[in-house]
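Quick one:
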Amino acid sequence: MVMWTVDTIRKDGFRVVISAFNSGAQNTAATRATPALTMTQLKAIATSGKWQG
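Output:
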């Protein structure tokens, strides 16, 4: 199984951690060669201003 993770922390201490797997769950066998989301997509989600509403 492959897991890609983006971990961000902002100056005010707000933290967002996003992970993607190449399986349906963390504890199941891989169903694809790479995770469903790319690192670019993960970074865009983690750094989005929408987290701070």
